[in-house]
Design a protein that fits this description.
The protein is α+β, with helices and mostly antiparallel strands. It contains 20 helices and 33 strands. An 8-stranded mixed β-sheet has the order 16-20-21-28-25-24-22-23. A 5-stranded mixed β-sheet has the order 2-1-5-3-4, with helices on both faces. Strands 6, 7, 8, 12 and 13 form a 5-stranded antiparallel β-sheet that branches. The N and C termini lie far apart (68 Å). The structure holds one RNA strand.
RNA sequence: GCUCAUGUAGCUCAGUCGGUAGAGCGCAUCCUUGGUAAGGAUGAGGUCAACGGUUCAAAUCCGUUCAUGAGCUCCA
């Protein structure tokens, strides 16, 4: 057998007999410490495990603890360990499906009649710990698909059999650790002892291959790390997310309520939430006015014929509520605002000189969502879109997209979102409009993104049937992504509604239509905002900006007097003049996350000032009423323009 | 819609083996007038999600429905 040259990162190299394992090379080329951190290697850009035989000259790049790839390998292996443990505890009648690593951990799907319970988790975890302690090696073997099918059939592992059959390849790889053998592409850890910290988190139903026509399996989710500290940090982050849950904060801060009597997925805004929403809406309207948009209002229902013309009944009918009869004519609740804006467009003739036309509306729409999909403010059945439609000539498309992106990012930034992922979705298999149109507009979207200097990812074939689109996913304080903004080009509706404008040539031309929503829906956006800020809203859109706290009854008159003055000045202020101790009032104001507490005692009353306490516990020396009004106004301006 | 879990006072939750309900917070009244995260006392408040069944007896056991949660799926 000939020798081969193996090097690490093109650095140190060694000569080994062909067929040596990657492990051997790593052992020879890395220090003991480095070796212990190595869980797999890249060879030619591919992640493989350490028991891979090397057959030719190779350059290895070690994958070491601390990297995302290593974590993914770890979690994948932990999923296998969990599967082994489940079968050890509950027997081989439990069938296994798939068990990949996912963003924050891993899962494994099991087919078992009885549901897994929290007590079962303890048993599984205990068994996993035993397996990990034994440092069982993961070994890989290549077998013919035929023999693998034979073997898994004999074991009754029908899901594995189905997977292999669908792969349609001559050989497959199996991974084995201890008593457990699994169809798997790998790679895996050298042995189970690399798993230093793990936890099973929850169990939920999941269809085999995500198809509801298939069997319902039980999916156990868990997570794993290379050290206990990281696991603890992750669990703390989950706790933190729980604390920020907008449903919990929404209740505590009295922002909104959802009630059985009213119906699921229908939001009622309580006074504080309504005020919060008004502030956001006002800002949004001002920003649009400043950017040359005009505001529209349109009805909530329309004749069914409209929805036939628009194509919504054909393409979106499943999400629309059934019709109602008004004087023998059928009407339907709107799931979208676009046909109404088109109606306004078609109410008169337009000249090319008037293009582009930019119309916006905070339009409330109703869409049917499956019961299991509803979630607080984030997924509801009635919501208000921050909608806009731009009608323009083809040559204006790029500029318009650029302007939309500009306004879009400005608004997101004002609300504290300056990290995002941008996706450009191109033509799907089923589409309307000419290829030329598609190419031109996709190009216009690209150019606008590039001109704005934005990095984006292309989602091939993910466009809507009527045109290409740009989606923006914002990242919140905890690093979670939320899809809010969407910008869609539409060749379909202008055609269906026979929209025209008179060109320079005195001929009719068809405008291009752009749909766009920046926040997506107010409900959803506010839900995200609550979690992003953990309810501690910036002063400019905090529903309550200040609360007056008196020390004794002797300041009540003065408190009422300044309360009136602040309200008149447009400060959102409350007063707490109850017969309670100051400590008690401060505690309540603090928990209500009110930005400023105005402490009023005899001192302030006599000097005609207020003493400020901030919600972070800091104190600001007393200042005059006018100075305080000025301060709040200035801070709000700064907040809005940040 | 599907799987599993949950549903008790305005809120957060106890409630054992089936014997018709309990705490803390909040709320009301009274005492207390207290300068930076909970002063004290008394009191009101519940068809135990709804409907049906088993039982001498159901918050508790069974069934159905509704809602909520974790997911699957879908999407703003």
């Amino acid at each position: 057998m000939s020798d081969i040259k193996v090097s690490i990162n093109n650095g140190e190299s060694t000569i080994l007999p062909a067929g040596s394992l990657a492990k051997t090379a790593v052992a020879e080329l890395l220090s003991n410490k480095q070796r212990k951190r190595t869980v797999a290697v890249f060879i030619n850009g591919e992640v493989v495990d350490l028991c891979t035989p090397l057959t030719e000259d190779s350059v290895l790049t070690p994958i070491q603890t601390g990297s995302a790839e290593a974590l993914s390998v770890l979690r994948h292996s932990t999923a296998h360990i969990m599967a082994e443990a489940v079968r050890d505890v509950f027997g081989t009648e439990v069938k296994v499906a798939i068990g990949p690593s996912i963003e924050d951990g891993f899962y494994y799907d099991f087919d078992r009649k009885e549901p897994f319970t929290p007590e079962d988790f303890e048993k599984i975890e205990a068994r996993m710990t035993e397996i990990i302690r034994k440092a069982v090696p993961f070994t890989r073997s290549k077998v013919s698909s035929e023999s693998a099918i034979e073997r898994f059939s004999a074991e009754g592992e029908k899901y594995k059999v189905e997977l292999i059959k669908d792969l349609g390849v001559p050989t497959v790889s199996l991974y084995e650790q201890g008593s457990f053998s699994d169809l798997c592409r790998g790679p895996h850890l050298p042995d189970t002892s690399f798993v230093k910290a793990f936890k099973l988190l929850r169990v939920a139903g999941a269809y085999w291959r995500g198809d509801e026509k298939n069997d319902m399996l039980q999916r156990i989710y868990g997570t794993a790390f290379f050290d206990k500290k990281a696991l603890k940090k992750h669990l703390n982050a989950l706790e933190e997310a729980k604390k920020r849950d907008h449903r919990k904060l929404g209740k505590e801060l009295e922002l909104f309520t959802i009630q059985d009597e009213i119906g699921p997925g229908l939001i009622m805004w309580q006074p504080k939430g309504a005020l919060l929403r008004k502030l956001i809406e006002d800002y949004w309207k001002d920003a649009h006015y400043q950017n040359d948009y005009e505001l529209l209002y349109t009805p909530h229902i329309a004749r069914q014929d409209l929805w036939k013309t628009s194509g919504h009944l054909d393409f979106y009918g499943e999400n629309m509520y059934s019709s109602m009869d008004i004087d023998d004519v059928q009407y339907q609740l709107k799931p979208m605002n676009c046909p109404f804006h088109i109606g306004i467009y078609n109410s008169r003739r337009w000249s090319y000189r008037e293009m582009p036309i930019r119309w916006c509306e905070l339009g409330t729409v109703y869409r049917y969502e499956r019961a299991g999909a509803l979630h607080g403010l984030l997924r509801v059945r009635g919501f208000t879109q921050d909608d806009a439609h731009i009608f323009c000539m083809p040559e204006q498309l790029e500029d318009e997209i650029f302007n939309i992106l500009d306004l879009n990012l400005q608004i997101l930034k004002t609300f504290g979102f300056d990290k995002y992922e941008i996706y450009l979705s191109t033509r799907p298999d089923k589409y309307v409009g000419s290829d030329e149109h598609w190419e031109q507009s996709t190009e216009a979207l690209k150019l606008a993104l590039e001109k704005k200097g934005l990095a984006y990812t292309i989602d091939p074939g993910e466009g809507v049937f009527y045109g290409p689109k740009i989606d923006i996913k914002i990242k919140d304080m905890l690093g979670r992504s939320w899809q809010c903004s969407t910008i869609q080009v539409d060749f379909n509706l202008p055609e269906r509604f026979e929209m025209t404008y008179t060109g320079k040539d005195n001929q009719d031309h068809q405008p291009i239509m752009i749909h766009r929503a920046l926040m997506g829906s107010l409900e959803r956006f506010i839900g995200v905002l609550i979690e992003h800020y953990a309810g501690v809203f910036p002063l400019w859109f905090a529903p309550v900006q200040a609360r007056i706290l008196n020390i004794t009854d002797s300041q009540i008159d003065y408190c009422n007097e300044i309360y009136a003055a602040f309200r008149k000045a447009g400060i959102r202020i409350e007063k707490d003049l109850r017969n309670e101790k100051l400590n008690y009032k401060i505690r309540e104001a603090q928990m209500a996350k009110i930005p400023y507490m105005l402490i009023i005692g005899d001192k302030e009353k006599d000097s005609h000032t207020v003493t400020l306490r901030l919600r972070n516990g800091d104190n600001i020396a007393d200042m005059s009423i006018d100075d305080f009004i000025e301060k709040i106004k200035q801070e709000c301006e700064d907040g809005k323009n940040s």
